[in-house]
Amino acid sequence: MEVYQFKGSLNEAYNAGYLYQPTNTRRITFPKTKTHDRKINARGREVKLWTKDLQEQSQAEQIVGRGLTLRHHGILKALFCSENDQLSKVVLGCTRFNLTLQDWIHNYGTTAIPHGDYLSGQGKDIVRSGWTAVDHIWEKGYTCRDLDKVSSYVMDGGDIKILPFVIDLQLPENKDEQHKLVLRSQFADMLDKHIGPLWGDPEFSELTKMMRDQHASTKAILGHPVLSSTSERQIMYRNADSSMAISGHAKVLKKRVIISAGWVQNAKNADKALANFFKNGYYTADVTGALRFGRKVSCHYAENYVAVNPKTWNRVSKDRADRLLKHVLPLVLCQWYRVTNCMESYTSDLEDGSGTK
Questions:
Q1: pLDDT tens profile 134-169
Q2: Is the CB of residue 31 less than 8 Å from the CB of residue 23?
Q3: What pTM value is reported for the model?
Q4: Minimal CB count within 10 Å: which of 76, 84, 139, 266?
Q5: In which element (H, E) is residue 316 found?
Q6: Is 80 exceeded by the pLDDT of residue 183?
Q7: 210 has pLDDT over 80
Q8: Which branch of life, at top level (predicted)?
Q9: SS3 helix, strand, coil % of the chain, rounded to 5?
């Protein structure tokens, strides 16, 4: 039988407490005090405790049982459940956490995920951890409900965790890939509503759009430009230009990647080094020209910077080229990435008016 202790009053939806393992229960002593006010003198493990109605005991036991199968850092682990005669309740204990996601956003959100050209490391961790947790739950034969609600998540330090109460066993009719897409879409909805606004960059919506694409693999999502380093993004620009030579890709990219009509002039006005590229090359104003320009800048920005700023060659930041491309060609990299990694979603773009490819 588990020995546990509540910390503080029982007025909250959940309570802090301690769990005492069998190895230290022998060292538990009770100071001389009134029976109803006994306190345990021993070092226990910090946990969070929920009280449930007695008729929910079977459900609570199932939740604890799932914890033996679901082993992922993005899922809050249920440790035990026990009937409490004094409370006439079932006590369900889980590993500790600091705050609900809602409280974390209110207290730390704008600091942890500030506005800027790139999503912060904390923001990336939340996306990666939550996304892989949803996939883990599905692969182990379970499903979730209410993933679109912020109340389904907590934060332990900088780690987001899905509450075990929203996880259920998959039913036979819910084992198809379409239901898996529902879970991914709900997680994307939560991100759009609560995490995206903290950063305030339209690239985030491009990421969540891709999450809702049935042909997007887990690997592709985790490699998305929003979650990538500036060096990785520069390599993507080089691959993007090369993809125009792949049969069929060029046609889809020209239709799906939106290019600003004035991007050439914007590039010339944005930076002297960027303007220098146009002195030595010609770039069409369409997708083909934009992706070719992106590749050239990703490969040769430093030397063009030196050409126009010979006395400050050593002051070029490593991410300068990517920051400039992000503003001169907004969303282009993200749109290219989605199309090339979810090409099956755009097969209709390959057909001509007669329905043939």
A1: 999 999 999 999 999 999 999 998 899 999 999 998
A2: no
A3: 0.89
A4: 139
A5: none
A6: yes
A7: yes
A8: Eukaryota
A9: 55, 15, 30
